[in-house]
Design brief:
The complex is a heterotrimer. By secondary structure, chain A is of the alpha/beta class. Chain A is built from 21 helices and 16 strands. Classes of the chains: A alpha/beta, B alpha+beta, C mainly alpha.
Chain lengths: 445, 340, 302
Amino acid sequence: MRYAFMLVLLITITGFHGCGNLKEETIPPGRIGITFWHGMSGPLGKVLTTMMDEYNQSQEQYYVIGINMGSYDTLQKKILASVVAGRSPDISQNYEALTLKLSEAGKLVCLDDLIAAEPDAKEFVADIIPVMLRNNTFNGKLWSFPFNKSVPVLYYNKDMFREVGLDPEKPPVTTDQMREYCRKLTRDLDGDGEADVLGYGMTIRNEWNWSCVFMSFGGVLFDEPTRRVFLDTEAGYKATAFYYDMIREGTAKFAEGYDHQNDWLAGKVAMFESSIVSRVFLKGKIRFDFGVAPIAQGDVRPAVVLSGTNINIFNSGNSAKIAGAWDFIKWFTNTDNGARWSIESTYIPVRQSSLNTEKIQSIFAEDPNFAAPYKQLDYAEFVPRIPDWFECRVKISDELEQVYIKAADQRDSGQSAEQDLVKLHLERMQKNVTGVLVNSLETLL
Amino acid sequence: MASLKWENRISKTIIHVMLIFGSIIMLFPFLWMISTSLKGNESILSDSIEMIPRDQKTTLIDGVERPLYEVSFNNEQKEMVLLRSLNEGMAEFIDPANPDESVVLPLTKQKPVRPMSFHWQNYPDAWNAQPFGRYFLNTIFVASVSVLCQLFFSSLAAYAFAFFRFPFKNAIFIFLLGTMMLPQQALLVPNYVILAKLHWLDTYLALIVPFTASVYSVFFFRQFFLTLPRDLHDAATVDGCSHMGFYFRVLVPLSLPPFLTLGIFSFLGSWNAFIWPLIVTNSTHLRVLQVGLAYFLSDAGTEWGLLMAASTFSIVPLVIGYFFVQKRFVQSQAMTGLKE
Amino acid sequence: MNSTNLKARRRKFKSDRQYFAYLLLLPTLLVITSFHVLPIFYSFALSLFNWDLISQARYVALKNFKILAYDPLFWKSLWNTLYYTILSVPMSIISALTIAILLNNKIKGIDIYRVIYFIPVITSINAVSIVWKLIYHPNFGLLNKLLSLIGIAPQRWLLDPKWAMLSIVVMSVWKGLGYNVIIFLTGLKNIPVHLYEAATVDGAGRWSQFRHITWPLLSPVTFFIFVMSIIGSFQVFAQIYMMTPGGGPMNSTTTVVFYLYKIGFGDFHFGYAAAIAFELFIMIFSLTLIQKLVVEKRVHYQ
């Protein structure tokens, strides 16, 4: 019996010792390991992994190990947790909202210093797409590097356009056109009195799209110095009523999560709006002729919200690791690799020169669907870069969700657009988002 | 007398019917899980309830996969391809062998061809989508080590309470019992901060050390040890047996049932633990199964076939183990309940 | 061997034994004290600071508690926890008791039933949460499909503030039912059979037997399950994290523990989270105390 216990203890102890060695992936001897935490899964993760492998083969000094954290949300939490634990990765994907916090705590490497050491520092910076550079600059300094940036686009079923007599090369440009197109595209196929195909499919929490339309109606989301929002405005009303009316008319439908994309694939809706990268997930599943176009806009100014994450280098104090991290970022976003990443993942490249490569230009010429999102780059903006904005987005979505559900309940009731209902929810939205910003622990404590 | 017997039989039947109905509710989610784990996406997303996985049969027509239907016209049954839906419930079908001729028939009256098809591939796909092998190893390692330590330490403490007399014995015992009233969830934040200061976060130590002691186990062991004759220890030690010698040679062999019961219990607890491993580990190579499942859910949010496959293979080892130790387990659960 | 020698040996042995007993207790005491007792005090100390563990800690005195008192989400999470408790505890007790009474008959296959009802208890909450998430799916979930068969309109279950918490409760009751069934069953087995026999001779029906024999004699067990379930409901987390990762539509499934998790391990406000933890501690601790007192009183009078 005693021996059994001794054995057990022995196993325990060796186990403890052994765990230090049980690492995910081993770094080849003589190389400096760079851990990279990201949130890219599915086909995007595959592209990223392939490119990391290529980087590891392209040189012999550094070795990048990618670790997929499942989702952006988990990634965010675990980045902070890793800083607390004192075991940060060397580089990670990150939202702008956290960058400031981490940089203020001295956990990040300022990229300006690294860029300044480059022989062609000026050209290096000048080549980055301006909105992306602004997006990563905090108090005049560049703390993170744009990595995977996206914008929303319109996907439409050209076959259906033809079937109802619409020009498949002329997708709707304005919100008014969108409404009209949706009416035409909504059809009852089996004659049971209910429409089987609807014009427009959307995710019920469409705060991203809504923000774009809101801005295009002249809306201002957020004033940074005063921490105020302006949702309960004419622009807010127009943007919300746009979706509300279509749902109530029965020409648009909402679905949970990404199910609106399945609806589109199954021919239940003719159009939907989502990220440019949705295309990668839809690849091979589309059973009809389709088009990609800029999203429909309000009547004040064109606007689209830039989304996606950036990459930052953690200040490990190890200059070799920092140099390796920077080397990888430069490699990944250089003209050729940036173009390739863009083609395979459909994310927007970071550099102007990537867009000008022959590879991308020839694809633009061949596939107009690929070129469509880039028209929106000129007027792309980004949402407030404060940690509280995550919660604000939830509050905006909560109210929008209520509006859409009520719109669906009023379908066929023959009532005209209920102004009061939309206004009521906008008031609540304004109140709740303000509440988040005012009661923010960041400001209270 | 006969009527009484009849009444008895009827009431027994009613009891069985109710119990079987309850059993269906208990088991159906698991059956649905297994069934879904073998389905393809198209079948999962469909509106019908199918226990047996089936797939729509399709044929390639002009570069597009089109669905096949069992079509009946001219008193004939034929497999034809649905080309497109037309207005008023009509649809255009063509014979794949003879694509130029088409017929227009009401869609709802035709039956889609859906042969059985099991997507076994979901299992390896799910297994490889995340390092589940690693997660299992971690879980087994963490559970084994913490359970073994816990059994060892708790039985030692119980040994002291049952066979030794020493100052403050009662005070210490009451103190320990008192700690059973402290809610675990309220300790998450301070313990996390303590581990951060110890630099134990994101290590196996964080997963194991806090669980190497259990007052409940001490109490359980003590109760058992008290049923053993007191002079056993005196006799053995006077005979020159050391304290640890007594523990290993006499006490442990005599107490295998509580060791086993508590072992199963704590192992299960460790296997199913979630919130603590979720917060104290960040790296993939330290993830335990439950945390891995949570990551997989957020990663593969819409791949229900894979998610169900992962749920299945993470449940199956426990259910199999449960069938082996079922009797003991139910008894020990009952003991817990009666103790109060 | 003379007697003084023996006495001396005995004495030496005794002090040796005392010393050894402490050694035996050491590992358990050490772990329990450092991870279960001291953290309670530490938690209070932490709650006086504003600290993210990344930047410098800032002493804010009782400000965290002041903010907590006016934090609508904290009150909402308290209400949600209470709501969960009010829904789940009676649901669980009634169904578990019914099944236990059914199982307490002399019928065939009793062991099989017992195994079946116990299976959800041993399976991991995370895995079954994934399964139930699919069952509750608004578009192609089993529940909506079944309801549509009997003509009930589909609901958005976990995505609807009205239904989200109830959906989680139903799943949790299903998961924990078997445990309570076994405890009730053990309690039922301890009720002397002759009481029922006497009642049958007196012509008492089933309901009357239940009211006058089963229910009163089972009440200690019922009370135990009642309190344990309440304490359990105050700690529920995994199913909420898995099924409604954001805390539910309109925060409808944000319970106190979930809120604590969100503030602490999502937003990294450890001081504020410690304040929530401290409140949680007080609540559960008082519940446990009440239970102990009631049980002791009961034992006293019996």
